[in-house]
Design a protein that fits this description.
The complex is a heterodimer of chains A (125) and B (453).
Chain A lengths: L7 E2 L4 E6 L2 E6 L1 H7 L2 E5 L6 E2 L4 E7 L3 E5 L4 E6 L9 H4 L8 E5 L3 H4 L4 H8 L1
Antiparallel strand pairs in A: 1-2, 2-3, 3-9, 4-6, 5-8, 6-7, 8-9
Chain B lengths: L7 H11 L4 H4 L21 H12 L7 E2 L12 H7 L2 H4 L11 H18 L3 E2 L6 H16 L3 E5 L4 H11 L5 E5 L1 E2 L2 E2 L1 H7 L4 E8 L9 H10 L3 E6 L17 E5 L15 E5 L12 E5 L5 E5 L6 H4 L12 H38 L5 E2 L8 E5 L4 H12 L1 E2 L2 E2 L10 E5 L6 H22 L1
Helix pairs in contact in B: 4-12, 6-12, 7-8, 12-14, 13-14
The chains are: A alpha+beta (125), B alpha/beta (453).
């Protein structure tokens, strides 16, 4: 299973890619596989303030809907515009074109509390 | 004849299984003084014939055949015979939520056409398969806004139907939602007070067009106010008046709801009614209830299905904005047939005729001594009259003595407005009906008017 080493992870199956004070958020390969065909993603508007491990949106597959949890606190600075027309890109490229939001991280310490690729792998395998 | 299918033996075995000696033991937690020991005080069973005769006798106490000037949400419009004939076809009467597209194409097509009619009437992008009534549709609109915006406050104008406001309160009770009522000033929403009540925790503003007093409001102001804080604007409309007014979509509504009873559904002693619910495209996924859609099968033939079901409670579960998984199929079919028969021009004629009658009646009533408009302002088909005697008294006298139901007593909903009568008009009220209304209003208030002189 693809669990890129450079990313951080949550127990709720989101990934976080940190670049300076900016973080990109998406869901893992494992999560997309469990959900199946994704039909819709409800994301917050740009400028929304989100808190660590609180729901920032929902993801709808054909048979289930799940909350999306933000790995860290911060302000939404960008939302993936491609998901509206093609939500299944999350199934195809969970770590690439299927990214969801970009955050301006408000507390870098929260990043250290997240799972590494190795500990996330232990969780799902 | 007993309708309880279990025998004494069945009951004995069930009690034995759960370890209880007698059924009465199950009732032990109920205090003795609350338990009824004697038999119910009911008459002996009757034969079918005797029962029909008894019920007919009771029904003679009803005041039927009244000339109706009461509105306040439901209206006495003419219903072409074809509405009942077509709706009464067994294929429609037996229709329930049509999960199985392969056996429900007719029903799904009717729902799709109903939705299309509602979209045309409101100018909105998508309508659902219907709701129980206008009041629950308004409550569902509030619920959608609260769920979508993740806020916890709504602002409702005092001029929205008081019964709708009551249902909204019931729906949202127990959810820790702040419901603020924005007061009216001289019969229309006080937009300064409304603006003061709206903040960045406000999910939606709800206004009615025309409002409960029959008056036209500048609802666009409300839309602007709530859009500034990123909330939704919910417009509650009268579907007949809508034929001659600017559409909710053009007024900035994100959600348009209303009572569909005027569209071919009888007054029915208060129900069943028909709610309609329409939204802008971006809210389609958060809309309550059923949604029918047109599609193509694998051979390219057109067909109809229920669509976007991930919106619904059985998939979204606790994350759904609504628990509603049904519609008001039979009444929606009536409205679909009615709107198909009327067409765009016919519906507009109904609205214009109702409006013409209302304005004729206003001239008649306000020409009488001691009757004046309760509020000033433009109206379509309904207006409030200040009465020289309490409206309740006037209504009772006119029902008893003249067979006229002259309107709704506004004091029932608005404290201090006991001298306000809300009078409504449809194309069914003739000029002679209006003359009779004027004559009866004059006659039953003559004593009060004289004593004041």
């Amino acid at each position: 299973m693809d669990i890129p080493a450079g990313l951080k992870y949550t127990k709720e199956h989101e990934w976080l890619k940190v670049e300076g004070k900016t973080a990109t958020v998406g869901i893992t390969e494992y999560a997309q596989g469990e959900l199946g065909d994704i039909v819709f993603v409800e994301l917050p508007a740009q400028g929304t303030v989100v808190k660590a491990m609180q729901s920032f949106g929902t993801i709808e597959a054909v048979k289930a809907v799940s909350d999306l949890f933000s790995p860290v606190s911060g302000k939404v600075i960008e939302v993936n515009p491609g998901l509206e027309d093609d939500p299944m890109i999350i199934n195809r490229e969970p770590y690439g074109g299927g990214w969801m939001i970009k955050l301006e991280i408000s507390n870098m310490e929260e990043v250290d509390k997240l799972l590494t690729a190795d500990s996330y792998r232990k969780l799902v395998e | 004849m007993s309708y309880i299918p279990n025998t004494d033996e069945d009951r004995r075995r069930m009690l034995e299984k759960i370890g209880v000696g007698r059924i009465d033991d199950l009732l032990r937690p109920i205090p003795k003084n609350l338990q009824m020991k004697s038999a119910l005080d009911l008459p002996e069973p009757l034969s079918e014939l005797a029962l029909m005769q008894e019920i007919e006798k009771i029904s003679r106490d009803n005041k039927s055949g009244l000339t109706i000037f009461a509105g306040g949400g439901v209206y006495d419009h003419f219903i072409p015979a074809a509405v009942e004939t077509i709706t009464g076809r067994p294929e429609f009467v037996t229709a329930y939520t049509p999960y199985q597209a392969e056996v429900a194409q007719g029903t799904l097509q009717v729902i799709y056409e109903f939705q299309s009619h509602i979209c045309r009437l409101t100018g909105m992008d998508a309508a659902n398969a219907s709701m129980y009534d206008g009041a629950s549709a308004a409550a569902e609109a509030a619920s959608l806004s609260l769920g979508k915006t993740r806020r916890s406050k709504i602002v409702v104008s005092e001029t929205v139907n008081p019964l709708f406001r009551e249902v909204i309160g019931t729906y949202l009770s127990g959810r820790d939602i702040d419901i603020v009522v924005a007061p009216h000033k001289d019969g229309t929403t006080d937009f300064n007070r409304l603006e003061a009540a709206v903040d960045d925790n406000t999910a939606c503003v709800i206004l009615a067009q025309p409002n409960f007093f029959g008056l036209i409001e500048d609802i666009e102001i409300g839309a602007e106010i709530v859009h500034k804080v990123g909330g939704h604007f919910v417009a509650v409309i009268d579907p007949i008046a809508a034929a001659v007014l600017k559409t909710p979509a053009d007024c900035g509504a994100d959600i348009a709801v209303g009572e569909g009873q005027p569209l071919g559904i009888p007054l029915n002693f208060g129900g069943p009614l028909l709610g309609f619910f329409a939204v802008k495209q971006e809210l389609v996924r958060f809309m309550p209830g059923r949604l029918a859609a047109r599609t193509e099968d694998e051979d390219g033939h057109p067909g109809f299905v229920l669509t976007l079901q991930t919106r619904e409670q059985h998939i979204r579960r606790e994350k759904a904005t609504s628990n509603i998984c049904t519609n008001q199929a039979l009444c929606a079919t009536m409205a679909t047939v009615y709107l198909s028969l009327m067409g765009r021009h016919g519906l507009k004629r109904v609205a214009l005729l109702s409006m013409e009658r209302a304005h004729q009646a206003a001239a008649e009533i306000f020409g009488l001594p001691s009757f004046e408009p309760y509020f000033k302002g433009g109206f379509v088909r309904e207006f409030a009259v200040r009465t020289p005697i309490p409206a309740k008294e006037l209504i009772e006298k006119m029902i008893d003595k003249r067979g006229i139901l002259p309107g709704v007593n506004l004091g029932r909903f608005y404290p201090g407005m006991d001298d306000a009568l809300l009078v409504a008009f449809t194309e069914k009220r003739t000029e002679s009906d209006i003359k009779s209304l004027g004559a009866a209003l004059k006659e039953f208030t003559a004593d009060a008017v004289l004593s004041k002189m």
